Amino acid sequence: MQTPAAFEYERATSLDGAIASLQRLGPEARVIAGGHSLLPMMKLRLANPEHLIDINDLAELAYIRREGDEIRVGALTRHVDLLKSALLAEHLPLVRDAEEVIADPVVRNRGTIGGALCQADPAEDLSAVCAAVGATLVVRGLDGERVLTMQEFHRGPYETAVGEAEMLTEVRVPLQDGAGSAYEKVERRVGDWAVAASAAAVRIEGGSIAQAGIALTAVGSTVTSDRAQESLAGQAPSEEAFAAAAGLAAEDCSPTSDQRGSEEYKRHLARELTLRALRTATARALREEN
User: Fold this and answer.
1) Rounded to an integer, what distance in angstroms lies between the CA atom of residue 52 and that of residue 113?
2) Collapsing DSSP states into helix, strand and coil, what is residue 273?
């Protein structure tokens, strides 16, 4: 049986205390909540932190609530709570779309949105979801908070803008009238990592597409296709417009061939899944507008 290297363990009792511990212990300290990404890496000796700071008692970071024109989600919110949230189902249905195909009940009961985003895995679902809906992320350190876009937060595969003595604390998603969203994913088996997936968000105003967000996962680093998004602005919703945008999104991604499929197959999926996500997101937006 593979076992991790020896490490020191402490259980945080407050957010400020956890951040202070990160500051005191230095770069070899890691925060742990669900542990579904970190622990397997530790068992394989791909990660060897000297200290683990358990934040599971920080109830202040576990919430889903509306504040003004935003929905705010604490970083310690579990996948299962995202899946069951009536607030998210009403305003951000792509979250439920994604959560229904993330892993299995064991992972969903323990894994957190903060852990998923901070892992920055190119095949991770919620990064594409957050990118498509224009989410911003709150990162907190001893000197205060920073609010980052998804593009600023994710610096590359498995790399984020979170500093050594900082923690991701909150995800903020703007709410807009006439908006709809959807997530489409192909996986080899239930709960598996995506072969390819696409998140789409659309806002309808006066019968035209006023704004669109498109983000792909598992086809390179999480891809937000500016060309695809811009091509839809001002267009009347139509199959032709969706197909053109989906084609641009597929061109802008960078899949690689592996055991899950060839580059050609993944690019085909990127196009088809984006097309499906746009159809569903637009149908939901039109219902919202009416």
Assistant:
1) 19
2) helix
Q: 144 burial class (0-12, 13-18, 19+ CB within 10 angstroms)?
A: exposed
All structural domains of the chain: 8-54 (3.30.43.10), 59-174 (3.30.465.10), 179-289 (3.30.390.50)
String of DSSP letters for 103-141: S-HHHHHH-BHHHHHHHT-TT-HHHHHHHHTT-EEEEEE
Reference 66, options 85, 39, 47, 43; nearest CA is 85
Provide mean pLDDT across the span 116-133.
Answer: 94
User: Which tokens go with 50?
Assistant: 């000297």
The overall pTM is greater than 0.90:
yes
What is the H or E stretch that residue 224 is in?
A: strand 223-224
Q: What is the dihedral of CA 98, 154, 161, 5, to 10 degrees?
A: 70
